[in-house]
Amino acid sequence: MSRLSRLPVADLVSTVAFAVMFLGCYLLSRPWDFRSALMPRLVSVVGLVLAVVHLVVLLIRAGRAEPAMSAAAALSPAGAGAGPGLPSGTADPSGAVSGSGSGSGFDGKDGPAVADEADDWDAEYVFATAGRTAWLSALFWIVLFFGSLGLFGLVITLPLFAFGYLRFAGGVSWLSSAVYALCAGTLVYLVFDLLLEVGMPVGIFS
To answer: What distance in Å separates the CA atoms of residue 126 and residue 11, rounded to the nearest whole number?
Structure first.
């Protein structure tokens, strides 16, 4: 397996995108006065540091994943098959079950090491197998959030976006979505606008 094929490309791309976004937010806040720029700079610096740390962790995990991934491929029916002299469904001395039964290497029955490695790559599998509809849906919500942020500001956008995303994208109940949106909007307004008196992004129509 090549080095490139073992890299979690989707996680790497999203992490780099977040790092660039946090860096851009920090640069945009530089002309602001101290009180207005305090919270955006703090969030941007923390987010940028976490993104860099996560990027390093992804690269380290990708370098360590080859032995476990190779073991999973050897235990799977597509890799090693039933093995010499072992009929389908027969357990060999290593504990793997041959054939097309449960010896996939990713169902937790082929040993804890392989199962743990499968869990580590679940997110990458989701990114790699997501269809066009899933990607367009995610892009729609991202564009909707930042578009609303530019038009109506954070105080209005945050509760409305939280409600819409939880209800229509997350499938959360109407009541839970409304309670979460109300709490999020109220908390942001009380803490940043009233308590800290930190300027928040305002939109064109706000």
So the answer is: 11
The per-residue DSSP string of 105-126 comes to SSSS-S-HHHHHHHHHTHHHHH
Place of tokens 């990114």: 127
* Nearest partner of 80 among 99, 56, 57, 54, judged by Cα: 99
- Phi–psi pair at 50, nearest 5 degrees: -65, -40
Average pLDDT over residues 85-96: 47
Range with the largest mean pLDDT of 1-10, 49-58, 97-106, 113-122: 49-58
Please state the length of the chain.
206
Domain parsing of the chain, residue ranges: 3-83+102-129, 132-195
Q: Report helix, strand or coil for 149.
A: helix
Closest to 92 measured CA to CA, from 106, 108, 111, 107: 111
Q: What does pTM read for this prediction?
A: 0.48
Rounded to the nearest angstrom, the gap between the alpha carbon of residue 167 and the centroid of all alpha carbons in its chain is 20
Cα 102 from Cα 123, distance rounded (Å): 22
Sequence-ordered strand ranges (E) for the chain: none
